[in-house]
Design a protein that fits this description.
Helix content: under 10%
Order of helices and strands: EEHEEEEEEE
Mean pLDDT: 92
Distance between the termini: 36 Å
Number of strands: 9
Radius of gyration: 15 Å
Low-confidence stretches: none
Largest sheet: 7 strands, antiparallel
Structural class: mainly beta
Shape: globular
CATH superfamily: Jelly Rolls
Strand content: over 45%
CATH topology: Jelly Rolls
């Protein structure tokens, strides 16, 4: 991958890890990206947040929870509902149109219903993330 000082990058081909030490490390999104992330092969990046951009045309098939901090979800296009579960209490945050965003609380299980093809930017404290089927 090119030196970050010498290149531009493009979502969704590259994500960025923002380290707690104020570093910003581009990460190429290859076929092995998600398995590598889940298996710990990217743990060398240390604690921080992953900035990712994803497109959706279907509801999420799982719930997830981030125990290390809040997650920012910013909608670029489309319409999605974020379903949250905190302490057994459900709630829904509607995101409609560019610029709509939600802050998913630390420790809140969440999933999404996609009402129309959508694209969103995520800033995620990924350490300790857990998934369960929807």
């Amino acid at each position: 991958m090119a030196d970050p000082a010498d290149a531009g990058f493009r979502f969704p081909d590259t994500f960025v890890h923002l380290g707690n030490d104020a570093s910003a490390v581009p990460i190429e999104v290859t076929e092995s990206f998600w398995p590598d992330l889940i298996s710990g092969k990217l743990d060398h990046l240390g604690a921080g947040r992953l900035v990712s951009f994803m497109e959706f045309d279907a509801d999420w098939d799982s719930w997830e929870v981030h125990p290390q901090g809040e997650e920012l979800v910013c909608l670029f296009s489309g319409a999605m509902d974020f379903h949250l579960e905190r302490d057994g209490e459900p709630s829904t945050v509607e995101l409609r149109g560019p610029g709509a965003f939600a802050i998913v609380p630390r420790g809140a299980w969440h999933t999404a219903t996609v009402h129309e093809p959508s694209a969103a930017l995520f800033v995620t404290p990924g350490e300790g993330t857990t998934h369960r089927p929807r």
